[in-house]
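ESCALATION

Customer reports they have been waiting on this structure for their group meeting. Please prioritize. Original submission:
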Amino acid sequence: MARAMLEYTKTVLKKVSFDAQLFSKEVKKALLRLLPYEKEELRLWIEDFIVDKPQLQPSLLMFN
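Update from on-call: job pushed to the front of the queue and completed.
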């Protein structure tokens, strides 16, 4: 089931990527409910996803 949560999170992030604040809010929520190895996988996915979306770059700061 944990894997399902990661996939669900990715789906939500894709849908809210039009709004940087909403995207960051959803990243924060995801970091509270994902397992440590899933958080790392999410960070890598976000890095790839936001390559052409500079307005979403601040969301990566939450992983530090």
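Sent to customer with the following note: The chain has one domain: 2-63.
Escalation resolved.
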